[in-house]
Amino acid sequence: MATTAERKEHPISMRLPEADVAMIDRAASLRGRSRTDFVRDAAVRAAEEVVMEQSLIRMSPEGFDAFMEVLAAPAAPAPEMVELAKRPAPWEAGYEPKR
């Protein structure tokens, strides 16, 4: 008796305007990907984002208090960011690229 293998991939078909397909193809080409790979990755990334937005985070009252304490504490300056903020912008006089 023949056994059927469980399907591991499921086709998805959609109709898109030509302009949308052209944009997808251009973006896929810029990334060096096929249209299928590009669309699959974009769709999965968008789906993961939606699912993560809906995720419930549970913690104990003590854990929540500790979390809120960290959020309320003053931020410590990051030396790299302070140095970057002090540099003149490339369009300002006195700009010299860092080497």
TrEMBL record:
Residue stretches spanning the membrane: none
Record InterPro entries: Ribbon_hlx_hlx (IPR010985), TacA_1-like (IPR014795)
Transferase among keywords: no
Keywords annotated in UniProt: Plasmid, Toxin-antitoxin system
Pfam families the UniProt entry points to: TacA1
PANTHER family xrefs: COPG FAMILY HELIX-TURN-HELIX PROTEIN-RELATED-RELATED
Family from the record: Belongs to the TacA antitoxin family.
Name of this protein: DUF1778 domain-containing protein
